[in-house]
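pls read this protein:
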Amino acid sequence: MFIIRLLLLSFFILLLTACSETPSIDEPEAETDQEESEEETNKEEAAENDEDSEEEPAEEPELEPAYDSSGNVDILSPNFHKDYLNNYYYHSYGGVERGMTEDEVTAVLGEPSDENDIPVDDVFNDIGIRYTLHDESVEQVLITPKEDISLDEVIESFGEPTQDLPPEDTGASVRILTYQPAADSNFYIAVEGDEDDNVSLIYPAETSNVEVVNEDNVMDFISAYYDINVIDMSLINFEDPALNEEGYFEIPFVNIHHGLTGHFNVWPNGQVEYINENGEYAYGEFIPYADGEIK
């Protein structure tokens, strides 16, 4: 009897030992829950990274110049129209700057051609120059394609124009396309055709019937006037702008260095006029504006 009890006791001891060595069924489930949680966290982080990348698109590379040192311009290229159609290149383009003499322009672009059927003073392949009468310096730079480019090719390359004006609407015998940089711009780019509907001239032009100047930004137009004419604005004391009955701002000023007085007239379309101390018009500057900023 004692032996039987001893055997039974040994059996129960062995059974308990075996049970204690059996791994818990709940432990793997806990590990699985943790792994799933980590996977969900990783997915959320990946989604956030994707959203960040969508919110911050990569910056577009800077455009390469569409012209070379001889005045050749790749007119139908994106590098040309993405740049030219969004800027006011009236006085300067292709390495030519307003105020340059004819010799200085020749030093940049080489000798002009003998082209004489385009209404400009000098032609350098695809670039035309007009000089002022009083000192024969550069006043305007235009695009003058030497190869035939049809207006339809321009539309295919540049996109649909803001206006497509037939000869009866232009007051001339040619068709003209216009491209306005933005809805609020005070200038547009004109693409003028010839009698064969090929491009003869491309140039920026002012829009007179828009209002881009207000009380908040009028001094920005004055500042741009000084920047263009390379004049030190820090020597000038300005009074507060006043909108007169004729619809433009008057800004009296005093030059604290020379004691000179005068005032500026700033028109709604961006035209800035310097009026001297005698009340006489002395000089004016058109300040281009588009997409909420001065160009």
In short: The mean pLDDT is 86.
